Amino acid sequence: MRVLVVAANKGGVGKSTLAFQVAAEMALHGLRVLAVDADKQADLTRYARGPRLAGLGLDAVIADPSLDPRPYIGPVAENLDLLGSSPRLAEADEVLSAAEGGAFFLHRCLGVVADTYDWAVVDTGHSEPIIAAAMVAADLLLMPTTASAPDARHAGEMLQTATRVRRELGLSSEGLLPRSLIAIWRRQHNGVADGEVIERLQERFGDLVCPVIIPHSSRISEANDQRLTVRQHAEMYGSSRDRPLRAAVEAYAAIAGHVLTRSGAASDGRSGGAAPQAEVDFDEPDLTRLAAAIRRLKSRRGLDDDQLAELLGRSVDWVRHTLAFGARHPEGEDRLTIRPASRAAARDLVGARTRWRP
Ligand SMILES: Nc1ncnc2c1ncn2[C@@H]1O[C@H](COP(=O)(O)OP(=O)(O)OP(=O)(O)O)[C@@H](O)[C@H]1O
Ligand SMILES: [Mg+2]
C-alpha cells in the first residue's frame, strides 16, 4: 500500500475536496483505496457520507492500543472505503503528544490494512501531532494551494515539515520530494493576478507543481454538500455547457493520474531503476484493444507521450505510432511485451486481453 497525504499550512485551500476526489478517481482506476479523515472537522467524512460520530472513526482507533482500524472502516463506493473522523479527534492531540511513539500511530494503523488496499489517501487538518504522524506515514505529499499570493506563500511548506519531522525521528525523506506535488486551485479564471502567481509557483517549484490547474466551480461545493464526487455531480446534474465543471472533473482525474505516475516513477528509482514491478505479456495481442487501453491510460492520467513511454517501458516512437495507428509488433520482435513501471498501470492494461505476470 502507498500512502498519499494531502496537507497544507493554510486553511480552506481545498485539501478535503482534493483528498476525496483523488481517492474516488483512484478507485475508478480499479485500485483499492482507503480514504482516511485525519481532521477533527471531519469534512472528508461528510463528503464521503461517513458517520461523523465520536467512537466510530480515527478517534476510536487512537484510543485502542492495538490501533486496528478495521472495525471502523466503512464502504463508500466500489473500491473505496472510509476511515472517518469526528470532532472527538480533537482529544487525540494530547494522547498522541503524551504517548511514546505517538508519531508512528498512523503508520502502524495503516500497516494493519496494508494488504487490503493499494492506496490510503489521508486528509489532514491543523493538528500538529496528527500532521506529524501523517508525515511519518507518507509516501507522497499532495499540497494544495489557491493561486492567491497569501496562500501561495505557504505552498510546499509541508515538505519542509515532513523532512524535519522525519529527520527528528531518524527517518529518511529521500524520494519524498520527487514523489510529491503542489496542486493549484485557480479561483479566478481570467484573473491576471492568479496567472502571475501560478507562473511564480511554477518557476520556484518546477516539477513539484502539478501541471493541471484546478478550476473554480461553484458546482464543487454543491457536490460536496450533496455528498457526491464532482464526477457524479456532473453526470447527474451537469450540462455540457458548464465548462468549469467539466474542467474540474478532468482536473481531478488528471491529478490522480499524476500521483499514480509519480509513485510509479519513484518506485523504479527506489528499486534501482531497472526492475519492472509487473509485466504485461501480450502473447496473443489484440492490438486494437491494446491501443484503446493505452489511449485510455493516457487520457485518464493526463500523460504526455514521453511520460506514457516511460510508464509503459517502450519507446516514444512506438507509443506515438500506437496512439495514432494502433499497436504493432516492434520490428524484430515476434511478440509484444510491455513492462509498465507501476502495478497500477499494469492493472489498467489488464483490461485489454493480457496475461499479467507480477
Ligand atoms: N475548485 C474549487 N472550486 C470551488 N469551490 C471549491 C473548490 N475546491 C474546494 N471548494 C470549496 O471550498 C471550501 C473549502 O474546501 P475544503 O474543505 O476542501 O478545504 P480545506 O483545505 O480542506 O479546508 P480546511 O482547512 O477547513 O480543512 C469548501 O466549501 C469547498 O466546497
Ligand atoms: Mg479540510
Write the layout of secondary structure elements.
Elements: E1 2-6, H1 15-28, E2 33-38, H2 43-47, H3 58-63, E3 73-77, E4 80-83, H4 92-98, H5 105-112, E5 119-124, H6 128-137, E6 140-146, H7 149-152, H8 157-168, H9 176-179, E7 181-186, H10 192-205, E8 214-215, H11 218-225, H12 230-237, H13 243-270, E9 279-282, H14 287-301, H15 305-312, H16 316-325, E10 336-338, H17 343-350, E11 355-357
Parallel strand pairs: 1-5, 1-6, 2-4, 2-5, 6-7, 7-8
Antiparallel strand pairs: 3-4, 9-10, 9-11
Bound molecules: adenosine-5'-triphosphate and magnesium ion (MG).
Overall description:
The protein is built from 17 helices and 11 strands. The chain has about 350 residues and is an alpha/beta fold. It has 2 domains: about 270 residues, Rossmann fold, CATH 3.40.50.300; about 80 residues. The protein has an 8-stranded mixed sheet with strand order 3-4-2-5-1-6-7-8, with helices on both faces. A hairpin with a 2-residue loop joins strand 3 and strand 4. The radius of gyration is 20 Å and the shape is globular. The chain binds adenosine-5'-triphosphate and magnesium ion. The site of magnesium ion has 6 residues, from helix 1.
